[in-house]
Amino acid sequence: MAREVREASEVASAGDEDRKLRVLIAKPGLDGHDRGAKVIARALRDAGMEVIYTGLRQTAEMIVAAAVQEDVDAVGLSVLSGAHMHYFAAVMEGLRAKGAHDVLVFGGGIVPDQDRPKLAQLGVGEVFGPGSSTEDVVAYVRRTVAEKTPR
Amino acid sequence: MKPKRQWLAEDYAAATEQHPERDAPFETLSQIPVDPLYTPEDLAGFDPGRDLGYPGSFPYTRGVRESMYRGRLWTMRMFAGFGTAEQTNERFKRLLAAGQTGLSTAFDLPTLMGYDSDHPMALGEVGKCGVAVASLADMEVLFDGIDPERVTTSMTINSPANAIWAMYLAMAERRGADLSRVGGTIQNDILKEFIAQKEYIYPPAPSVKLVIDTFEWGPKHAPRFNFISVSGYHIREAGSNAVQELAFTLADGIHYVRKALERGLDIDEFAPRISFFFNVHNDFFEEIAKFRAARRIWARQMRDVFGAKDERSWMLRTHAQTAGVSLTAQQPLVNLTRVAIQALAGVLGGTNSLHTDAYDEALALPTEESATLALRTQQVIAEETGVPNTIDPLAGSYYVEWLTNEMERRTLAYFEQIDALGGVEAAIEEGFFAREIGDASWLAQREVDEKRRLVVGVNAYVQDHPEVPIQLVDPSVVEVQKQRLARVRGERDPAEADAALAELRAAARDGRNTMPAFMRCAHAMCTLGEQMGVLREVYGVYQEPVLI
User: Fold this and answer.
1) Cβ under 8 Å to A: B residues 217-256
2) How far is CA B35 from CA B8, B339, B394, in A?
3) Tens of pLDDT along B512-533?
4) Which of A40, A139, B420, B429 suits A147 as a labelling partner, its CA being 20 to 30 A distant?
5) Contact A34, A108 (CB under 8 A)
6) Could you tell me if B142 and B150 are in contact, meaning their C-beta atoms sit under 8 angstroms apart?
7) Do B501 and B536 form a contact (C-beta atoms < 8 A)?
8) What is the pLDDT of residues A80-95, one digit of tens each?
9) What is the Cα–Cα distance from A109 to A36, expressed in whole angstroms?
10) b or e along B112-144 (b: 16 or more beta carbons within 10 Å of the residue's beta carbon)?
11) Phi/psi at B440 (5° precision)
12) For residue B543, which residues of chain A lie inside 8 Å, CB to CB?
């Protein structure tokens, strides 16, 4: 994967605007409903971010490995199958174990209101449900990554 | 009377000069431009005898049965399944008691992907979006107290369809049922999985081969069973528009017919048991036109292109489900209204069977109350509106007939495009469908984001709403499942289970029909994961190219 934007010298000299945000969009688990993941990937890419889409059937380990290898600023998980508690927890834990504490983890899909506080407690950011606007997602990722990694 | 063009240029233009048209997209959800008015001029060349016929006769535009809903209402078939087989069995019985007339089974993701509940890939998913069925033992609990000769059951299962169907039939046999009297439907449409829903296991060619095994075996052994439900539903849910849904679904159906003919099967032996499944989305008239066009296109293809002689081979019988993708998490009670209107479109389109979504489906699986309300919506249409009293009441509407023609024209254009790519399997591998659907869903999302299309409660009329109660799945499901699996593996005859799996492996390897081996595996209590594991070894697994 091309990593030129992350060359140390460039990062040191570049202003915020010059470094493209890198986002991993992932589909954990067995579910194949990928309309939302693809729409979000496209929206973030159109907004000028570097987007890596994992494709389907990813385990938490695969997602963590990709996030670390691609040195992303944010990971977006799309879960519609009801397995969100399992996968968000596993990805958060995996990222921490790899020392990737500053990576923003956010999500989208079918997540009941009752589970949102539990996800927040795990350190998961915003979870965008059906009907969310892609512009809100773009703005959220931009703003939250900027807050998380002051340069 | 002056010509339409003149009326538009003079009267209509003058009127809209005074009172301009609303700032709204005057086009269908498939981007078909909609005129302010339709007149007989829009139906030049339209021949009711040729293009409509009577209900129950070619080309079935007006419906596949003579009496339609005056004889028997559509089947009210609500898709249900969650947790353990015991829990879903209980929900089935309550739905039947509430007046539902057929069953429809939702399986969990491990089952849909051919994993047993104790497989590592099943972690976190057991019983979550459907019921877990890993062996005949689960199937027996699931249909406990439900007579398979009396109640028809639809099963939404694709890649493992042969194995699950065999388990259902084995369950019926063990209860002493006569398989020639057992009716129902397995979805078994693998092409739309590659195109849209992505629950495939093996590569396209062996996957289609497994489907054609059921075309060959079904009519001889379970003649009342629809061994396939060619499905546009999931293509639509993945983001396609109505025209794409119609065109891709019928192209899939035609692909299966070609493959069955290549195997040397007689079209009139298998075609009468091909069934369909379409979405009913928000664009009211476009949806009605879609169902009418679907029947006409299929009838013409089957009779005129494939030379089927049996009238039943020409009939497109279909299930319909309201559009889950159209439901919103915001102000969820508004979904009741969406579902009612979509259901009405399905009925006016002449569907043979209908599922209405519950209002809370953008939040979780339906609760018992929301599922019952959804069923009641169908009952209101059936009993209170008068809509079912006359057949195909919108026939002859200039707009509906024009739109039906337009849907047919655009569908045939897609057929040509797919054929030029080398057929459905080639088009899948080339990424044609993924691109088409991706572009359509992107366009639809842009329209909503930019407020060119308004969605009540989402980008218009936004308002806070109280939380609604949702269905939770008991986490103990996994344990119940694991225990039953352990018991099945411990109590069965191991030699017979091994022999059955060996027969399945040999049948797959030698390219023989796999259904007899699946039946033996079911009776021998082989688990779903074991059977799918054998086929994974023989056929390999498929990875789709990643496209965004």
Assistant:
1) 237-239
2) 10, 26, 18
3) 999 999 999 999 999 999 999 9
4) A40
5) no
6) no
7) no
8) 888 899 999 999 999 9
9) 8
10) bbbbbbbbebbbbbbbbbbbbbbbbbbbbbbbe
11) -65, -40
12) 55
What whole-number distance in Å separates Cα of residue B531 and Cα of residue B397? 52
Q: Which of B191, B250, B193, B239 lies closest to B410 in space, CA to CA? A: B250
d(CA B354, CA B319): 6
What's the rounded Cα separation, in Å, for the pair B32 and B323? 20
Q: Which residue has the tokens 């996957």?
A: B207
Say what the pTM is: 0.91
**Polymer length of chain A:** 151
Would an 8 Å CB–CB cutoff place A85 in contact with chain B? yes
CA atoms within 13 Å, Cβ hemisphere of B497: 16
Residue with tokens 């350190």: A123
| Contact yes or no for A39 and B544 at CB 8 A | no
Which helix (H) or strand (E) covers residue A120, if one does?
Answer: helix A116-121
State the Cα torsion B258-B260-B262-B265 to the nearest 10°.
-130
The C-alpha angle B498, B504, B506, rounded to 5 degrees, equals 100
Give, rounded to a whole angstrom, the gap between the first and last alpha carbons of chain B.
52
Residue of A23, A35, A138 to mutate when probing chain B, most B C-beta within 10 A: A35
* Min distance B162 CA to chain A CA atoms (Å): 20
Q: What is the ipTM of this complex?
A: 0.76
